[in-house]
Amino acid sequence: MDIQGLKDKILQLAIQGKLVEQCESDEPASVLLDRIKKEKEQLIKAKVIKKEKSLPEIGEDEKLFDLPRGWEWCRLGDISNYIKAGGDKPKTFSSIKNKQYPIPVIGNGKKDKGIVGYTNIATENNACITVSGRGTIGYSCIRKNPFCPIVRLIVICPNIGINISYLNYSLQYFVEQGVGTSIQQLTVPMIKPKVIPLPPLEEQKRIVAKVDELFKLIDELDKNKQDLLENITNTKNKVLQLAIQGKLVKQFEEDEPASVLLERIKKEKEQLIKDKVIKKEKALPKIDEDEKLFDLPRGWEWCRLGDIGIYKKGPFGSALTKSMFVPKGKDTIKVYEQKNAIKKDCTLGDYYVSKEYFESKLKGFEVSAGEIIVSCAGTIGETYILPNNIERGIINQALMKMKIFDGIDIDYFLIYFDFILKKAAKESSKGSAIKNIPPFNILKKMLLAIPPLKEQKRIVSKVDLIMNYLDKLQQEMESKEIVLKKAILTEI
After folding, report:
1. Residue range 287-298: average pLDDT?
2. 3-class SS at 353?
3. Which helix (H) or strand (E) holds 367?
4. I need a surface site. Which of 104, 143, 297, 336 has the fewest CB within 10 A?
5. Is pLDDT at 432 greater than 50 in this prediction?
6. What is the mean pLDDT of residues 412-428?
7. Could you give phi then psi for residue 221, rounded to 5 degrees?
8. Pairwise pLDDT comparison (475 vs 487), residue with the higher score
9. Looking at residue 422, what is its pLDDT?
10. What fold, for 27-199?
């Protein structure tokens, strides 16, 4: 059960009379309702409020559950001095609060508790509850200070015999939660006849005190959780930062320097080009001093992403469409999708193309065990190392495949990729509704700090150790949260 679900459960118990004990000495709600009726008659006689059409008797089918002793069902209109809609936006209006315009203008939004501006005249001076009629339909809020309600905001002024906080909690349960998606607007005629359970006034106060206490505890629980999650995330980022800067593990003089392995990778690429396994590409620019992000430890080297791997994005849209998919069969080729990279699962998906179409149009997009697939759109930068048991297949338009040369520990590469390249990808797409991984002309030029191979493995081992500890800490926190939630429910 999530935080809001727990609060909803507490409200349910509260309005059913199961949250606090009933006391025989409490004045029953029937007496309270009779007094409210007489007070309203007196206010009408004194022309303080207008006489309204009587609300219908409450039918048995409207009573949602059995009430405790001393409680009564009532209509919202019967326990309110008035229920009305807000007026037009005042002519004297300011978007900011100042000495001339100190009175808040309240609309039907939830942001900033509905405050849309300020004016100099209050049209509502009583302690009230407002309910949003449009927008965030059903959102209720207590207003104890003078304000000016505007259109599509419903104002409820409860009788003095009704605890305003209890009424607000009741509205949160019966109105805010009960608004269906089919309701486009909440109106005064809709809310006046709303039936709610009414406890004795003293019990109303006890219910409010208990709900307030529990909600405070739950909010503290949630805040502690969010603070811990933030600390864990920050710690993980710091660990990764230290790892890629050579500050996480010791350097050893006997380790073969990265310059040697980069030279070996260079020769390997040249041989692959010579054997026509890969195409020769335009040489990447030399690394300038101003590009280097930090000072490297002894034995480390800067290189470009394009220097240490082979990269290929999925086919253009017209080359692979749903019309080309065929049922899985003996001679079909699997089409790997975003979800394979995101879920780290090669078995997901049921899209296939014929072997004939693969051989004629899509062979260049085939993936092999040990290659990395990367999600390139939407949820960008999610990576997955393809295992040995994969079906023969190709990448689709939303994926990129990467083959990293020997001499680069693939897990070290992914650490760097996740920390630097994913961040860079997001920044390059800032302001775009759909985020995309940077184009190859940018991606291949990105810098990596390469340690000796043995140090790469030590870094990976250390990072895994710390990350596993942090993940375990998070799991323990989530387990304790579940226990605390159960304890709260048990208590009530």
Report:
1. 92
2. strand
3. strand 366-367
4. 297
5. no
6. 72
7. -60, -45
8. 475
9. 57
10. Adenine-n6-DNA-methyltransferase TaqI; Chain A, domain 2 (3.90.220)
Spatial separation of the C-alpha atoms in residues 464 and 459, rounded to whole Å: 8
CA-nearest of 77, 31, 25 to 51 is 77
CA 47-51-55 angle, to 5 degrees, is: 155
Backbone phi, psi, residue 69, to 5°:
-60, 135
The amino acid occupying position 136 is T
Is beta strand 195-198 parallel, antiparallel or unpaired with respect to 72-75? antiparallel
Rg (C-alpha) for the chain, rounded Å, is 33
Mean pLDDT of the chain: 89
- The 8-class DSSP code of residue 16 comes to T
| pLDDT tops 90 at residue 162 | yes
Question: How are strands ordered across the β-sheet holding 103-106?
Answer: 115-119, 103-106, 148-149
Burial 249-258 (b: 16+ CB within 10 A, else e): beeeeebebb
DSSP letter at 204?
H
Q: Residues 6 or more apart from 170 whose CB is under 8 A from it?
A: 15, 196, 197
* Helix, strand, coil percentages for the chain (3-state, nearest 5): 45, 15, 40
State the CB neighbour count (10 A cutoff) for residue 408. 22
Strands in 80-85's sheet, in edge-to-edge order, are 80-85, 153-158, 128-132, 140-143
Domain with CATH 3.90.220.20 in the chain: 27-199
d(CA 206, CA 81): 23
What is the value of pTM for the model shown? 0.68
- The predicted model gives 202-218 an average pLDDT of 93
Q: What angle do CA 424, 427, 428 make, to 5 degrees?
A: 85
Structure tokens at 355: 């072997």
The dihedrals phi and psi of 313, each to the nearest 5 degrees, come to: -85, 160
What does the pLDDT average to over 465-478? Answer: 90
**Dihedrals phi, psi of 367, to nearest 5 degrees:** -110, 155
Confidence of residue 178 (pLDDT cuts 50, 70, 90): low
Q: Which residues lie closer than 8 Å to 28 by C-beta, 6 or more apart? A: 69, 70, 72, 200
Task: Write the DSSP assignment of 97-122 as a string of letters.
Answer: --SS--EEEE-S-SGGGGEEEEES--
- What is the amino acid identity at position 69? R
